[in-house]
Amino acid sequence: MKVLPRPKYLRMKIIIDDKIPFIKGVLEPYGEVEYIAGANISKDDVKDADALIIRTRTHCTKELLEGSKIKFIATATIGFDHIDTAYCEQNGIYWTNAAGCNSSSVQQYMASVLIHLAGKHGLSFKKRTLGVIGVGHVGRKVVKLAEALGFRVVLNDPPLARRIGPCGYISLDGIIREADVITLHVPLTYEGEDKTYHLIDENILKRLNPNTILINCSRGEVVDNSALKMALKEKRIAGAVLDVWENEPHPDLELMSLLDIATPHIAGYSADGKANGSAMSVLSLVRFFKLNAQQWFPEIPAPEKPVIPIDCKGKTRQQIFSEAINSVYRVADDDKRLREAPDTFEKLRGSYPIRREFSAYTLELSNSLPDIETPLKKIGFNITLK
User: Fold this and answer.
1) Are 237 and 205 in contact (CB under 8 A)?
2) How much of the chain exceeds pLDDT 70, in percent?
3) Model confidence over 188-208: pLDDT tens digits?
4) Taking the model in full, what pTM does it have?
5) Is 330 designated active site?
6) Across the beta sheet with 307-311, what order do the strands follow?
7) Looking at residue 165, what is its pLDDT?
């Protein structure tokens, strides 16, 4: 980011979560910057600060903010349930989230999850229906992925259906009836007609088809983890995948042992997604305080092998997708790390390895199938033919 020295009379203090990547050194020309572990940011830390740039581990409530000088809060995440937005708005504190910043990262996570589940459960994508609950930035990317893979897709998003019309959307009951795999991409809300807290509860789990697989990479509290554990123990559903948990960072180990895939809240942790979140937060602060700065975006390390050769001869469409996706990212690696050391949940997040999204790779296809290039491009891959 190209910056100009701020005027001497402009005094600013900025508190930043020390796990937000790419951001160190960017805002120092504008004032005093402190980097603190997100869960440890305290009332004393913020009392004389002007701005906060955080992640989900910092709960911006009245208890933290009351009596402080805070005027601006940016969370470098899609979700913002950790911000008491009503309190902020009542007290003149501007807040913003990084909407959509890691949607392609979650799409990539979901791609690897679906490939993994296909191998374990013998799923043929063309014979299955994927139910997507929540069709915002992330949900739309998941729909695009599922269509590219060959799934029939059904959608549920009551607030969106009310806003744009019901065409194309079905009820939660419809999802329960029709979907073989159900994936959740909703915000966490605790009240109102669109409350998502324990959206998937014991009652819903009892109504699911025994062959259903449930995936949650939205917020942990959207699924009643105790009820899910019982459903899996009693084999009332075929399987489940959790990237998010109730009581993070202390996942239920018995529940973990029953899951197909267990990961430590990293679905959106691609390097590209993190860079987007950091950039959106910085530029929101720049605009809010009317700082004299130009556009900025982090430099992301290139992948070690950006070109992936794939010989399509004799392979099915699903096999080609599996090879392409597994060449870039295997969710099983994240699952293995968590199961081996579940007490390091936060450490695994804080030291997450660099993961580039599909758009950073070129697939070099030989003996290409006529219907394979467009869907691979649809999920972000670059394609060349050999």
Assistant:
1) yes
2) 97
3) 999 999 999 999 999 999 999
4) 0.92
5) no
6) 307-311, 362-366, 382-385
7) 84
Cβ(33)–Cβ(16) under 8 Å? yes
Determine the residue type at 254.
E
**Element (DSSP H or E) covering residue 97:** strand 94-97
Distance, in Å, from the CA atom of 93 to the CA atom of 231, rounded to the nearest integer, reads 43
Mean pLDDT of 103-128: 97
Among residues 32, 202, 248, 373, the one annotated as catalytic is 248
The per-residue pLDDT of the chain, averaged, comes to: 94
Beta-carbon count within 10 A of 163 CB: 8
- Please give the average per-residue pLDDT across 288-296, as a whole number: 84
Q: Given strand 94-97, what is the order of strands in its sheet?
A: 32-36, 13-17, 51-54, 72-75, 94-97
Instruction: Output the CA angle 326-330-334, nearest 5 degrees.
Output: 175
Token pair recorded at residue 286: 């720049």
Catalytic residue (choose from 55, 57, 116, 219): 219
The yes-or-no verdict on residue 132 having pLDDT over 70 is: yes
Residue 65 has pLDDT above 50, yes or no: yes
Residues 139-156, mean pLDDT to the nearest whole number: 97
Please identify which residue in the block is written with the tokens 């267990």: 262
**Type of residue at 191:** E
> 3-class SS at 154?
strand
Measure the CA–CA gap between 183 and 92, rounded to whole angstroms. 37
Catalytic status, residue 248: yes
Residue 272's closest CA among 159, 370, 352?
352
Taking CA atoms, 150 is separated from 24, 146, 147, 220, 321, in Å, by 42, 6, 5, 28, 11
pLDDT tens digits for range 68-93: 999 999 999 998 999 999 999 999 99
User: Chain-centre distance of CA 386, in angstroms?
Assistant: 34
Residue 10 pLDDT: 57
Residues 8-28: pLDDT tens digits? Answer: 445 699 999 999 999 999 999
N residues, the chain? 386
Structural Rg of the chain based on CA atoms: 22
Query: Which residues, in sequence order, are bridge partners of residue 350?
Result: none
Q: Is residue 198 annotated as part of the catalytic site, yes or no?
A: no
Nearest to 355 by CA among 307, 310, 301, 312: 301
Q: Exactly one of 55, 265, 317, 356 is catalytic; which is it?
A: 265
Could you tell me which residues come within 8 angstroms of residue 216 by beta carbon, excluding any fewer than 6 positions away?
183, 184, 200, 222, 223, 240, 241, 242, 243, 244
